[in-house]
Design a protein that fits this description.
Uridine Diphospho-n-acetylenolpyruvylglucosamine Reductase, domain 2; binds flavin-adenine dinucleotide; alpha+beta; 16 helices; Uridine Diphospho-n-acetylenolpyruvylglucosamine Reductase, domain 3; Alpha-Beta Plaits; about 475 residues; single chain; globular
Length: about 475
């Protein structure tokens, strides 16, 4: 019998297989918590090669782990067993010509998000998915995690931006669902099923994505809010006043701002006042006739009159808007450079954000007095990245990471929200899912997995327990 690695090398050609030290960069996840040395890393160059390699792995009993940019935060894109083959889509990075009339584009799953943004710029079109990892995250990984990002409250998550898909199924068949239409009710919504499947039901190889016209004008502001309740009230007011022109509504705390300013010396905070919480607001329109600056200025005035806004600045240029955005986007980096941290990806109904922050703070302080809480995220859809740093005088969490995670997940669940808002479950949150979701919901997922991947070789141990 031929050795499976020889078969895989034959399928993939000389550039298509990495092992030993060459495979090391693919081995550990972004947070360096998961991943063993895989059998090797397959780098196919087209869909036929992906299908052939999945079939060969199935026949040889090897696990298959799809990997995009490996920026996922739940450990879903790395191997758990040494008999696993990581399938990196990095060589499948072709970007088709956009269709301006239909507002769509065909791309391969290995396209890096930032490269797609760049390619669309000259066409006056945009793909409305923005997140801190866009320089590395790839379309297949964004689909795999059903990524959200800062514009999800306006344009939706990946599942709302994917029109069509091509997928290699766990038995090595190719499903061609590359239709460029929004309306397609011919049965189960398979394209949505693969959004958030985290590589457990097959490998996405190509996608038709939905595009929007690039705004011709934008207006931005950085606001100091009196507290989280004020931030939520002001957000609700803005949604009414700015309607469909509201394109960004992000928040961050003073703890996060202080960490970012401490560790990233080129960051500048240009307002005179500091407060408990900050809002970053952006309005955008495809028309140059909409008075965005006026809408924003009068909302700011209203917020000050109501005592919600303590201080604020309207951006006077694109460069200043970008500076404001950096204060929000560097929140994860500032905290990472501070040392050990715990990340929690929570969502609650947007009106309940302030309550979550208030109750969450009490819970965390009871678990470890003085723990530094750095909540930041997407006010528009209630997504809170509720991240913790140890108290000032400690370097660690005194072995209490699990207690924080459990308590915060329960609180989010009680408040009608989610403990896995936009990063997925991966390997990190399976137990949490079992504790916080009904047996009916978990069994439905397990049966889906079992039906589509009966041998359990497609990314085992991710999203559902393995073996089932
Ligand atoms: C600094 C930073 C900021 C972030 N900000 C956000 C944010 O604002 N919003 C947000 O939603 N997420 C955010 N994330 C996490 C987010 O999940 C990823 O950035 C992105 O969605 C993952 O893309 P990737 O290509 O790196 O996927 P990977 O990490 O490589 O993979 C993620 C999952 O998808 C699967 N997968 C990969 N490729 C395929 C494929 N072709 N077919 C099927 N399955 C596949 C993998 O097996 C894995 O389970 C952030 C991460 C970082 C590091």
């Amino acid at each position: 019998m031929t050795d499976p690695v020889t078969t895989l090398r034959q399928i993939l050609g000389p550039k298509g297989w990495l092992s030993g030290p060459d495979a090391e960069p693919y081995q550990r996840d972004w947070l360096n918590r998961y991943g063993v040395r895989p059998l090797g890393v397959a780098r196919p160059s087209n869909t036929a090669e992906v299908a052939a390699l999945v079939k060969a792995c199935r026949e040889a009993g090897l696990d298959v782990v799809p990997q995009g940019g490996n920026t996922g935060l739940c450990g879903g894109a790395v191997a758990q067993q040494p008999n696993a083959v990581i399938v990196s889509l990095s060589r499948m990075a072709a970007i088709g010509e956009p269709d301006p009339d239909g507002g769509s584009i065909l791309v391969e799953a290995g396209v890096v998000l930032a490269a797609l943004h760049e390619a669309l710029e000259p066409h006056g079109l945009m793909f409305p998915m923005h997140l801190g990892a866009e320089g590395s995250a790839r379309i297949g990984g964004l689909i795999g995690t059903n990524a959200g990002g800062s514009q999800a409250f306006r344009f939706g998550m990946m599942q709302d931006l994917v029109l069509g898909l091509e997928v290699v199924t766990p038995d090595g068949a190719i499903w061609d669902g590359l239709r460029a239409v929004q309306k397609d009710n011919a049965g189960y919504q398979l394209r949505k099923l693969y959004c958030g499947a985290e590589g457990t039901l097959g490998i996405v190889t190509r996608a038709v994505l939905r595009l929007y016209p690039t705004p011709r004008q934008q207006a931005g502001a950085l606001l100091v809010m009196s507290d989280f309740t004020a931030a939520v009230s002001f957000g609700a007011y803005l949604r009414g006043e700015a309607g469909e022109f509201l394109a960004g509504l992000e928040f961050f705390s003073d703890i996060g701002l202080a960490l970012a300013l401490k560790h990233l010396p080129d960051l500048a905070y240009q307002l005179e006042t500091r407060g408990e919480v900050y809002l970053l607001v952006e309005l955008a329109s495809g028309s140059t006739r909409v008075p965005l600056d006026d809408i924003l200025a009068s909302a700011l005035e209203w917020g000050m009159e109501q005592g919600l806004v303590v201080d604020g600045a309207l951006a006077t240029s694109g460069a200043q808007r970008a500076q404001f955005w950096r204060l929000r986007e560097e929140q994860p980096e500032g905290q990472r450079l501070e040392g050990e941290q715990l990340k929690h990806d929570i969502s609650v109904p947007p009106g309940a954000i302030a309550r979550f922050i208030e109750v969450g703070a009490k819970i965390c302080d009871d678990i470890l007095p003085g723990v530094r809480i750095n909540p930041f995220g997407h006010l528009g859809d209630g997504n809170i990245h509720y991240n913790l740093s140890p108290p000032e005088n400690r370097a660690d969490f005194d072995g209490k990471a699990g207690r924080f995670a459990e308590a915060l997940a329960s609180l989010a669940t009680e408040m009608g929200g989610s403990f896995a808002a936009e990063h997925g479950l991966g390997r990190a949150k399976i137990v949490m899912a079992e504790r916080n979701r009904s047996i009916v919901e978990r069994e439905l997922m397990a049966r889906l997995k079992d039906a589509l991947d009966p041998h359990g070789t497609m990314n085992p141990g991710v999203l559902v327990r393995s073996p089932l």
